[in-house]
Design brief:
The protein is of the alpha+beta class. Among the domains are: 223 residues, D-amino Acid Aminotransferase, Chain A, domain 1 (2-Layer Sandwich); 62 residues, Orthogonal Bundle (DNA polymerase, domain 1); 87 residues, 5' to 3' exonuclease, C-terminal subdomain (DNA polymerase, domain 1, Orthogonal Bundle); 69 residues, Rossmann fold (3-Layer(aba) Sandwich), CATH 3.40.50.10190. Helix content is 36%, strand content 20%. It contains 25 helices and 24 strands. The longest helix has 23 residues.
Length: 694
């Protein structure tokens, strides 16, 4: 039974251009907001499906337009709180790439085969398992004894909840086996449907807030201060993976790993199944789907993992997810509700995004009150109007998707959507070229909304990460004219007396805020570049720029030189992997702006910038620039780039005097001739293969 491939997102059908970057940035901001509501606050505003759709929309755009990979999506997960001790995972706990159709699954398998350069007769084997809608946890065992339990957190840093976890009967305090010297067990904490219903009945009796779904109930329970409260909530646990472990623990397949878990006294999901072909994988999916409602726990998909551990290690990981696994989301639930009004959000680069305010409705166990309308072209295509009854669906873990309008229920006096001709923030004229999807306010920093959003980005988690300086406080400080640009943030202490007594600000909270600001006056170069909010420069490209220029002074000086498009500085810039001419032009324009130069001058008097050093493995090739050309017979280009980066080397787009090595595969292009002319060392595939094995 083959599923139909969903209609390609309308945005993707339009011509990608510079304006689309604003749309993607706004999309990323919405993803970050709803991720916090779901994972950190346990108070989702949209369904899992709606959220996953937002993520899928981003992934689709990037997949169709790889030149925009620099706009990197942050890992999905929760922020840590001061209530619990923080703990850095030895190996990141990444999320999974989502698939919504079997076509997506086939694409995943095809890409995996290509990456591994497997022949058709070498079929991949998979371990299939239901994707439990719960809370991921890491359990550390030393000599068989449970020593620490850490939540997933943001994937990198979690919260220590050891005593709380010990109340869960499925989690052994002592492993049997005998166990290895050290092992990190990873799995999912969840609440059964029955226990969830009982808990909500108790919440009603106590006149307390009901939980939205079992996942939020489980997450909220683990964060309780009272161990007795957690014990009474009756949580369960399935083990499904490992993190770090000592060499006395060995296994060759995912199936073998699960069997070893059982011998150590851990509980695994009995629905797991090893399959050896696509037909069996498909059969497993439909079997679980047919029994979904009868399962005692909530699931939101099926996870397919490459069974071979050797192949898992070869595949490695993307920035936020493993290459060797994918989550196949289950079909959506469809409901109807009404559009109350259409608001407009203004992003930090001026992009206007329409958002539909809905009559709240429950879908997939979550109350939904907002839905992204993406852009005005999408609104006109679907003819969405205020007062309309719309059909929305929840599929997988994606954001609410509007399927269409129920025209039979349309009010007689309804009016077509009228795009805002003036910015709702600054009242300046908005512009939307006929061939572009995004309408934008062109006022720049004179637009309050854009200035505020730039400041929010500057202090955000992956930038300066200033605790206590949240969105509402930034808006207050901006409106009170205490801050107007980046540098003003580090001068807030001058307004200490004024701040004390303001809404939500007492002496203690102001003191904590100032302490947090002062603790962040030293920042890594890549973090600073990202914090500046340069168009087209996300976390990935920030790291690439930091790697290639090492210091902020050098970056600024080289960008000034690069204003001359014929200069060596500009040629070096465009030769950096993922930095094309459009990105380069935006960078040059940003660093040559007199306004920005003045901001840098003031900012550098209040902060200290750490020069960039690579976090990759040290090797003779660390810091070198390597360019690839031709087809490699023993590995894909993606795997080759992965290996280059792990040696601490830089990947170049084109051959120039800054290139150190050229790796040549079959049917190379003109890069070889250029390398010979510049006397650059050429490495054939055999030599390259020997290098990577060292």
């Amino acid at each position: 039974m083959k599923q139909e491939k969903p209609q390609q997102n309308y945005l993707i059908k339009t011509k990608m251009n510079i304006e689309t970057l604003d749309y993607i940035n706004n999309l990323l901001k919405r993803i970050e907001y709803h991720n916090k509501q779901y994972h950190t606050d346990d108070n989702p505003e949209i369904t899992d499906y709606e959220f996953d759709k937002l993520c899928k929309e981003y992934d689709d755009i990037i997949s169709e337009n790889p030149e925009f990979h620099f706009l990197e999506r942050k890992s999905i997960g929760s922020q840590t709180s001061d209530q619990f001790e923080k703990f850095k995972h030895a190996k990141p706990m990444g999320s999974l790439v989502n698939a919504f159709t079997f076509d997506d699954v086939r694409d995943f398998i095809d890409k995996t085969n290509k990456f591994l350069s497997l022949k058709n007769n070498n079929k991949l084997e998979f371990m299939c398992e239901p994707k439990i809608d719960g809370l991921s946890i890491s359990l550390l065992y030393l000599n068989g004894s449970l020593t620490k339990a850490i939540t997933r957190g943001d994937g990198s840093i979690g919260e220590v909840v050891t005593e709380n976890i010990k109340t869960i009967k499925d989690i052994p305090h002592i492993l049997t086996g005998p166990p290895p010297k050290f092992i990190e067990i990873r799995g999912e904490i969840f609440m059964t449907k029955k226990n969830f219903e009982q808990l909500n009945q108790l919440q009603i009796q106590r006149s307390e807030k009901m939980f939205a779904n079992p996942r939020n109930a489980a997450a909220g329970s683990i964060r309780q201060k009272s161990v007795e409260v957690i014990k009474n909530r009756k949580l369960n646990f399935f083990a499904f993976s490992v993190g770090e472990f000592t060499e006395d623990f060995t296994f060759n397949t995912q199936k073998e790993l699960l069997n070893k878990f059982k011998k150590m006294g851990l509980i695994t999901n009995n629905e797991n199944l090893e399959v050896r072909d696509f037909e069996s994988l498909e059969k497993f999916y439909y079997n679980i789907l047919s029994r979904r409602n009868s399962l005692d726990y909530e699931i939101d998909g099926i996870v397919y993992k490459i069974n071979s551990i050797e192949l898992q290690n070869r595949l490695g990981n993307l920035s936020r997810a493993p290459r060797w696994a994918i989550a196949h989301k289950l079909p959506p639930e469809i409901v109807e509700t009404t559009i109350i009004k259409i608001d407009t959000q203004v992003g930090r680069t001026g992009a206007l995004t329409p958002v539909g305010k809905l009559t709240p409705i429950k879908i997939g166990g979550v109350i939904v009150s907002n839905v992204s309308l993406h852009n005005e072209d999408e609104i006109f295509r679907k003819d969405i109007r205020v007062g309309d009854t719309i059909k929305i669906q929840r599929a997988g873990d994606v954001i609410p998707q509007i399927l269409g309008v129920n025209l039979q229920k349309r009010p007689q006096n309804s009016k077509m959507y009228s795009p805002p001709q003036l910015c709702p923030s600054c009242n300046n004229k908005t512009i939307k070229p006929s061939d572009e999807a995004i309408r934008r306010c062109m006022a720049g920093v004179s637009c309050p909304a854009q200035s505020i959003e730039k400041l929010k980005h500057f202090v955000s988690k992956n930038a300066f990460n200033i605790d206590g300086l949240g969105d509402k406080l930034i808006e207050l400080l901006f409106n009170e004219k205490i801050i107007s640009d980046f540098n003003d943030i580090f001068l807030i202490e001058q307004h200490k007396d004024y701040l004390i007594g303001r809404e939500g600000l007492g002496p203690l909270s102001v003191s904590k805020l100032l302490k947090s600001i002062n603790s962040k006056r030293r920042i890594k170069l890549n973090k600073l570049i990202y914090a500046l909010g340069i168009r087209q420069i996300g976390e990935t490209n920030s790291k690439l720029l930091a790697l290639n220029y090492s210091t902020f002074d050098n970056l600024c000086n080289e960008m000034v030189k690069a204003e001359d498009l014929s200069s060596e500085a500009f040629q070096k810039l465009v030769s950096i992997d993922q930095i094309g001419e459009k990105v380069a032009n935006d960078l040059v324009a940003f660093f040559n702006s007199d306004l920005n130069k003045n901001i840098f001058k003031k900012l550098l008097t209040n902060i200290e910038i750490e020069n960039y050093t690579s976090s990759f493995n040290e090797s003779p090739y660390t810091g070198k620039t390597i360019v690839l050309t031709g087809t490699l017979s023993n590995m894909s280009r993606e795997e080759a780039k992965y290996l280059i980066q792990n040696m601490g080397a830089k990947i170049g787009n084109s051959v120039s005097k800054n290139t150190d090595f050229l790796i040549v595969g079959e049917n190379p292009g003109s890069k070889v001739k250029k390398a010979i002319e510049l006397n650059i060392k050429i490495i054939d595939e055999e030599e390259w293969s020997n290098i990577t094995k060292k």
